[in-house]
Amino acid sequence: MSDSMIEAGVATDRAERLTRTIRDQTFPNLKPRDSATLILIDRAHAIPKVLLGRRHLRHRFMPGKFVFPGGRVESADRQMAVMAPLHRHHTVRLMQRVRRPSEAKAAGFALAAVRETYEETGLMLGMRADAPVRTPPGAWEAFAKAGVMPDLSAVHFIARAITPPKRPLRFDSRFFAADISAVAHRVEGMVGPDAEFVELVWLPINEARSLDMPGITAVVLEELTDRIAAGMGPDHPVPLYRMLYKRFVRELL
Hints:
Distance between the termini: 24 Å
Number of helices: 6
CATH architecture: Alpha-Beta Complex
Shape: globular
Low-confidence stretches: none
Strand content: 25-35%
Helix content: 25-40%
Mean pLDDT: 92
CATH class: Alpha Beta
Radius of gyration: 18 Å
CATH superfamily: Nucleoside Triphosphate Pyrophosphohydrolase
Number of strands: 13
Largest sheet: 9 strands, mixed
């Protein structure tokens, strides 16, 4: 069997599994909100480990599920300075199928993932800055206080997924990955019984899928496994999962 036939079979299998997870689609149709997610990887072991958090049961969206840190993209994310930019290949793919694409918008997606990771886990990705860090108001001010500037050269764009129409909440989500070595600072007390994540777990990537997680989270873990096996090169294709004629399809950006 050729590599192209194997790839086609993998794409169909993953898309079909997502189709089977579809639930009630009787809500008013909403425009998807841009969101970003970050997967931290620890490759110090024979089988890489990934970081997941369990969402609080009070949350309206995916209560009690294990997910990667992430959330909505905010306008301030585009205004945050970086130590180093995204690799050009990632920037180009992030600008595909986007209204009014720009390099600033592409960087904003990745920066949103970095910010959300800090807000939900206390982990700051970046590098120590020699000079004072200037930030937009809000959560980014914590980076200035810690003297950390984001380093997007350590961040990889690995997948994109759009929530099906007529769901109560819809997101156009970009999934990123970074090695744990990219963490420059940690703030304690961000996880607990009254926080968005009630616990964090590091699990081997082949065991993580046994957790109670959304279908897209499990599928993205498989995409990450493929990318790690291929060496995490920036030229690796990035899959886009979206619904077409009531079925999920997997397309490559």
